[in-house]
């Protein structure tokens, strides 16, 4: 039988995975690619430089975070965007 500490750690991990998946799904919808995977590149999904600016604005509105231009330019995949948004949300809290 698992200890209380192990049970809490497992629960925290599950919640973290659910949150990331939820964030990933929300980001995918913002780029009109609801069925995309975390590994899909933004360029492959048709996000160019103007699209990136639009995505930043949508993310700031959807998640209530501020995203700098330099940070956004480092995004390559949907997964990297979702992870970064999660980090920004945690830093904000």
From TrEMBL:
SUPFAM superfamilies on file: ACP-like (SSF47336)
InterPro entries: ACP-like_sf, PP-bd_ACP, Ppantetheine_attach_site
Pfam name, any one: PP-binding
Position of the signal peptide: none
Domain of life: Bacteria
PROSITE patterns: CARRIER, PHOSPHOPANTETHEINE
Domain Carrier: 14-89
Keyword entries, A-Z: Phosphopantetheine, Phosphoprotein
Keyword Phosphoprotein: yes
Protein name: Acyl carrier protein
Organism for this UniProt entry: Corynebacterium pseudopelargi
